[in-house]
């Protein structure tokens, strides 16, 4: 599983950080950054991506097929 962050879309809502605090964090600009891509199980990371109101978190499988959104 690969995580791609579309930082321009991030509006600092923080729900991804609330769901997966070991995977995502907000930087000094209040935009999402990757803290540790293996900091949670895949279902939790997917739940975090789905929680994002602007779909700023994209999930791909290891063959680069998009799983979400
Ligand atoms: S949930 Fe989306 S908008 Fe909110 S901090 Fe995470 S990436 Fe940014």
How many strands, which pairing sense, and closed or not: the largest β-sheet?
Answer: 3 strands, antiparallel
Please give the count of helices: 2
Number of domains: 1
SSE order: EHEEHEE
CATH fold type: Alpha-Beta Plaits
Weakly predicted, low-confidence segments: none
Report the radius of gyration as a whole number of Å.
11 Å
What structural class do helix, strand and pairing data support? alpha+beta
Query: Strand order across the biggest sheet?
Result: 1-4-5
Residue-averaged pLDDT: 97
Summarize it.
By secondary structure, this protein is of the alpha+beta class. The protein has helices spanning 15-19, 42-51, and strands spanning 2-5, 24-26, 32-34, 57-60, 66-68.
Task: Describe what you observe in this structure.
- With 69 residues, the chain is α+β, with helices and mostly antiparallel strands.
- It has a single domain (2-68), classed as 2-Layer Sandwich (Alpha-Beta Plaits), CATH 3.30.70.
- It contains 2 helices and 5 strands.
- The chain has helices at 15-19, 42-51; strands spanning 2-5, 24-26, 32-34, 57-60, 66-68.
- The strands form 2 sheets. It has a 3-stranded antiparallel beta sheet with strand order 1-4-5, with helices on one face.
- The longest helix has 10 residues, at 42-51.
- It binds iron/sulfur cluster.
- Iron/sulfur cluster binds next to helix 1.
């Amino acid at each position: 599983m690969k995580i791609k962050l579309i930082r321009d879309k991030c509006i600092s809502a923080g729900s991804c950080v609330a769901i997966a605090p070991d995977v995502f964090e907000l930087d000094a600009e209040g935009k999402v950054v990757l803290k540790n891509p293996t900091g949670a199980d895949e279902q939790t990371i997917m739940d975090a991506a789905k929680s994002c109101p602007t779909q700023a978190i994209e999930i791909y499988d290891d063959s680069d097929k998009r799983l979400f959104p």
